[in-house]
Structures are given as structure tokens and as C-alpha cells.
Amino acid sequence: MTGYDSLVLDYDGVLATVLDKEARTEACCRVAFEEFLDRDVTPQRETVQRLSRSVTPETVHTLSRQLDTTADALWEFRDDMLATVLNEATTAGRKRPYPDVGALADLKVPLGIASNNQRRVVTHGLTEYEMVSKFETVHAREPQLESLHNKKPAPTFLESAWADLDSQNPLYVGDKETDVLAAQRAGMDVALIRRDHNRDRNIGHDPTYEVSSLDAVVSLFESG
């Protein structure tokens, strides 16, 4: 289906570059053991390494019992740690917008963001990149454990962005299988964008389109 009247995009891997996993893990360890020493939560290095990646609520509860703390306290530590790492990387230019983001300026439809990342990380990036005014709505996680239930592949963030944009036929752009699933569950067409970090990744669900750049996404609107 073409004739799209709005565009919703993922943030990491679509608009902004993805940090190398090893570099992110090491940065998390540095923050945990140098900047967060005054926190009540004192995880070991192995726990910090696990928390630097995507984790389920069940894993958080298990780790919190091992540390004799609450799941909410551990999650606050985790989200604060990652927000610090990602915001520092953004400010330092290690996490930056992809060069083809400029192609979005040619679009005449409203834009929104639906991201599994924390809202404060996304908004910090948009501010640093001077892109705040380009997007009419941003839906992302708040730093609470219960926010995990809204993560894609749940369609929550996409449906909320769609409602805010008040459009009839949005297109979503993501870089993961969970993005494809979330869009399908929301009833949206989806373009899977291939970047260096996901160039050879197998996707178990077929997107509406596969593209290699945001320029190609813009062309989908021009062809409609």
C-alpha cells in the first residue's frame, strides 16, 4: 500500500547510530563503578554486563533477589546507568545521526518516533542533533520497570504515535524483527532498513519493504 500520510521511525539504528556492544558494556562498567558508587545498589561486574543489554522483567527480579534489593531499585540503577552512557556518547559524538537523516527534510508529512529506548535518551539525542522540531511526537520508555511491557513487539508506542499524528495511512521504519512485528500488530506497513549493524541479520517476519537508506524511504512517499 502506498499513499502514506505520515512517517513513524525507530530511533536507534534508524535515525541514530548504534553503539558497539563491547564499548557500551565497558562504558556501563565504568559508570557503575566510578560514577554510581553512592548508589544503594552495588552489583558485580557480571551483573552490570547483563544489565547493559536488553533484559526481561523476570531477569531483573532474579538479579534483584541475588543482590538483596528490590526489582524497582535495580531497574532504576540500570536505566540511569544506560541513560548516562548513551547521553555521554551522544554529546561526545560517538553516537550520532546517520548522514541520510537529512533526506527526511524533503517529506511533507508529519513525522513521529516510536522507540524502545528511554524517552530521556531519545530527547537528548534530538536536542543534540538539533532535530527536535522535525518530529511532532515521540513515544519511548519511561525509566520504570513496568515500561518493559510496552516495548516492541508490543504495538503500544506505534499506536500512540499514530494517534498523535492523526493520520490514516502511516509507514513505520525499523531495523529489527521486533519492529516488523510491532508494525504488523498495529496495522501499519513497515520498512526494514538495513544498516551495517544488521546487514546480515535474519528476519523471521517479512516487512512490507526492505530499504538501505532513508532516501529510499522518502522515495516510497514520492511514488505514492
From TrEMBL:
Keyword Hydrolase in annotation: yes
Gene Ontology molecular-function annotations: hydrolase activity
Entry-linked Gene3D superfamilies: HAD superfamily/HAD-like
Alphabetically ordered keywords of this record: Hydrolase
Alphabetized InterPro entries for the sequence: HAD-like_hydrolase_sf, HAD-like_sf, HAD_2, HAD_sf
Enzyme Commission (EC) number: 3.-.-.-
Pfam short name (any one): HAD_2
Domain of life: Archaea
Name listed for the protein in its UniProt record: HAD family hydrolase
